[in-house]
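yo

u said u wanted the structure for the complex thing, so here. seqs first:
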Amino acid sequence: MPHSTPSLQIPVIDISSPSVDAARQLVNAASEYGFIFVRNTDKAGIPDADIDGMFELSKSFFQSPVEVKERCSINSNEGGKNRGWLGMGVETLDPGKQKRGDFKEAFNIGEYVDGKADQPLPAPLIPAETQIGRFQEQCHRLCNQVLEVFAQGLEIDSAEGGSSWFSARHDRTLGPSGSILRLLYYPSVPPSASYDPETDIRAGAHSDYGSVTLLFQRPGQPGLEILTPACEWAAVPVNPHDEARPPILVNIGDVLSYWTNGLLRSTVHRVIVPKDSQAEEDRYSIAYFCHPLDEAELAAVPSEAVKNFDGGEKELRRVGGGRLPGVEGKVLTAKEHLDRRLGATYGLGDAKA
Ligand SMILES: O=C(O)CCC(=O)C(=O)O
Ligand SMILES: [Fe+2]
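structre next:
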């Protein structure tokens, strides 16, 4: 059983004026940790007021009566699979280890169609439909900026698309994708609660399924941990250098790992209940799981660095490999991959990103 270490030095990288240096730093950090902070700037970032606004909405939704939330339950499937509200314990991210589901609630919002939500929204979120759609777009734009810098760092052949190789496969004007904006709420765990710290967890160990994930956390609400290459759990800080404008956390998902033969690591992470008095605090977070277009193929990118990398076998086996089992030579599409992964972590249906 890996034990916890206090904290980790995840690099903070400025991608607002992309340079060879920034691109290399990004690739190096993604191959070492699978997690990176990007500086939140006007050119490559999201205004703090918009992030704060989303957290306020999230709070008003999760604090509303259960009947309000249930109307948009993920199990009603009214919004299509993988969308809507998940109550406490509905998702089990590490089914092999957990006796009970995750101690959290979540609300999954799929891609908008023609500027409108493509699923029923609960009453507290209806007046904010435009605001949520705008935030989704801001997240997607930032992910594409990050992906362009990755393409530069991997020196993807310019005849094959160069720095646009990834972003062209995330161009929302060309078709649908499985991208999900997810609001998360981890209720406080008072000392008297029937909570067993040995087996209960806020989010079980898992890796994300998409290409990259943006993760927004709140000051004073820690709990996220990553599994280091030395197989130790290490805490991820919320604001590593206590900056007035905190950087945005980006983590590599399974798709980017497939595409790079495991050079970029899709790192296992989890959310624990802090052992001290912070256990009695609620925790809110917001994730944007960025996925490629449904039809994008998950074959290795045309990059010498990827071709020459041979350490990824183990990593690829862990995330399930990039080919359909038993179908020799058939490359998975992003949708086939997502459909395969959805449901594996759920007792009740498809619900993660
Ligand atoms: O809440 C967090 O900090 C992380 C959530 C997460 O890893 C997930 O939902 O995939
Ligand atoms: Fe995650």
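The chain has one domain: 4-345. Residues 320-326, 347-353 have pLDDT under 50 and may be disordered.
cya
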